[in-house]
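Changelog entry

Holo records now carry the ligand SMILES as an explicit input line rather than a separate metadata file. Below, a converted record for zinc ion, shown in the new format.
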Amino acid sequence: MCKMSVEEQVIENAKNGKLLTHKCTDCGFLHLSTAYFCLKCGSKGFEDVLLEGTGQVATYTIITVAPAGFEKYTPYAFVVLKLDNSDLRISGFMAGIANPADLPVGTRARITGFDERGIIIEKQ
Ligand SMILES: [Zn+2]
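Structure line, unchanged by the conversion:
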């Protein structure tokens, strides 16, 4: 069995609509997979937990002037998604958002993929 890096695992799971997280084996506190030690108890023991990539839009920034190479995607929003059944928040890309009326805070959304833009989030 080939061993993928954490980043590769995050990407593969995002393509399947899931989020790879790290759960502390000592206290159970849940972290994003980028954590190296438990923010609650300091332990370095983690186990992988897959969460459904669904949640609510917590906040976002609308991008109308894109960085080089991303002009074709505008307008879009850089969205912070609060995941269901956890306090974790992840950020990602949502296409077609031009103004706040397009995306009220609290809108249901889900992870749908991963590409050069990063994690792709779409309205549910
Ligand atoms: Zn812990």
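Spot-checked after migration. The two ends are 34 Å apart (CA to CA). Residues 26 and 60 are 34 Å apart (CA to CA).
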